Each structure stands twice: as C-alpha cells, then as structure tokens.
Amino acid sequence: MMNTLIDKFIPQLKEAMQIGETASLTAGADPIHNVYVAGLGGSGIGGNFVAEFVYDECNVPYTVGKGYDVPAWIGKNTLAITSSYSGNTEETLEAYAKIQATGAKIVVVSSGGKLIDFAKAEGHDYIQIPSDWPSPRACLGYSLIQQIYVLYHLNLISDKVIGQLKTAINLLEFNQDEIKEDANVLAQFLHDRIPIIYTTGRMESVAVRFRQQINENAKQLCWHHVIPEMNHNELVGWKQPNDKLAVVYFRNKDDYNRNQVRMNINKEIISKYTPHIIELWSRGNNLVERALYFVNLGDYASYYLSELNKVDSIEVDVIDYLKSELSKV
Description:
With 329 residues, the chain is α/β, with parallel strands linked by helices. Helices cover 49% and strands 15% of the residues. The chain has helices spanning 2-7, 9-22, 41-53, 90-100, 113-122, 140-153, 160-174, 176-190, 204-217, 257-270, 287-309, 317-327; strands spanning 34-38, 62-65, 78-84, 105-110, 125-128, 194-200, 223-227, 245-251, 277-281. The strands form two sheets. A five-stranded parallel beta sheet has the order 2-1-3-4-5, with helices on both faces.
C-alpha cells in the first residue's frame, strides 16, 4: 500500500499545483507582518520545507509551530496557516482556537474534518485537498504546495518558487528509475543498523522528513543533525566504535563551501568509529528541485527498509493507541 502511495507522489504534486492555482483567497484588512504555520507530523513538515524554500524571498518572518500553544506576537498583522490533513488533529485545533482569538488572518489547509467546518462557519479562507489518502505522511505534496500558493496569492512571494516546483516535477519524472535504484541501495545499507542523518542547516527538512519516514514506515529509531551546528556539540559524542551505526550524508554541490569542508572533516573523524558511511548527492538546479529529489528517494528507501524489516509500512497502531488514551482524559 505505501509503495503505491509513494508511486503517486508525482501525480499528487501535479494535482496540488492545480488546486493551488485555482485557490480563492481574500486579502485581510491589515497588512501582513509575519506568518505562522500550525501543523504536526506529515501535515506540519510541509511548513518546514516552505520556510526553507522562501528563505531568500519572503520579506516577513515565517515561523512553524508544532504544539498546542502559539506565540504571543500573533495578532491582526499575522497570516496564520493551520495545516491538518484530517482536519481533526488535537493540537492544531487548539492552536486554531487560540489564533482565532488574536484577530489574525487565518487560512486553513485540510481535507475536511473540524478545521474545514470551523473555517466555513467562521468565514475564514480555506483550501480543501483530497480526502481519499489513507496516510497523512503520504500527502506532503498537498500541504507543502498549498502553503506556497497561499503566500503567492497574498503577494508575499513571487511565482519563482512555483516555477521551481514545476521543474522539480519534471526532474522527478526523468529520474524515477535511478531514484528507486538508489533508494534500494540506501535501504540495504541501513538494514539492521541505526541510521544517523546529516546535512546542512538549509536542508534540514529533508533530514527530518527522512527520519520521520524511517520511524513510521520502517518502524525503527534514528536521529539527525545539521552542519555546522553539530560541529559544536554532537561531533564530540563520537568516541566509541559502534558497528551498528550507519551515517547518511545528504549533500549538494552548491552547499556553502565552508560546510563542504566541514562535512569532509566530519567523515574523516566519524570513520574512526563506524565504517558505515554513505554520501548521497542531489540532482537539480535549485533548492526546491534538490529537496524534492531527496524526499522522493528517502520515501522509497523507507518503504524498502520496511520490507527488509518485515513490518507493515502503513500501520501506526501505537499512535492510534495514544489518541485513544488521550480521548479518555
């Protein structure tokens, strides 16, 4: 099932572009001075990608929150995007209620549920995405692209990133066979080992996404960190040889030159403690293309790893149990 959903990533991106193009949003009465995105899990990671994609263009702060609480600075000059695939995520619903009390400009991105009902009843803008996907984590394309279009329709960014999304789709189509082959190699490399994911800070969302997919699809723990920050703390933790650790570097030819040097030195140091180190180099001409290339590769690798681990990649019983227990309180 999960492999079928991953196979549909490119069609999903295309459909998401069409939904975004035709979305109807109204300008608020007050100018926008900042953007806040509320969302968790598969619905929240899209906000992290968007923050990186518009870092050089959006001229107002763009912040992503993943919890019940919202910042005190949210007010009438805030664009608040609440993202929940189901529309019933407990934390996002509470954040929505708190945001509404501030007078912020609210845009809901969801497939339905209470969030869409609230938006309709209270007169907030919303973009409704298809509801027939069984796994929110397989719907990254929908949430990510709608957030880009919200910024575009409200004149916070140009159509530059939209153009890059279109070329990213072409890149994925052209490289599908190679992506699957590399993903299979990566899954074999990680099997029966503890994955550690490193990349630069500008592409942390790729590492977070891959970590989350390994957690949910392959049913195993891993961790990630970013360079240069990890050079100031985690690097010191490499002191004992451990053959169970497997390090993945997500790299780009345009990574800042000092970070390139740092990665090379990191590899030299870490190789003293584990022989299992692999470098993956992105394809593409810009951050959007390279990030989505890695997303597609990582998603496939997490599925192939689930097959090697002999687990059901769709099943999330422990999350369902958690929600059930929470409902009793």
